[in-house]
Amino acid sequence: MNMETQSVWKVKKIREGDYGCEERQPGEKVKVLVTVENEQGEVYTFLEEDDWLYENQIEEGSIWPEEIRQRICTI
Prior knowledge:
Elements: E1 10-16, E2 31-37, E3 43-49, H1 50-55, H2 69-73
Antiparallel strand pairs: 1-2, 2-3
């Protein structure tokens, strides 16, 4: 994924992750689907740990912080 450092990415949606037929394993952290969009209309959706979003105070409407932008790029 090529995300420009000048772009501002806004969290558009946070949805429950789909674990399919295999339920979450014991001890596995809850993951949610996060959709972000920039000013150019580029959209990316990826899985992220729900606890991590909470700890970083990221919710729908939040700007994806510059210092953690690399986290998206590696997914």
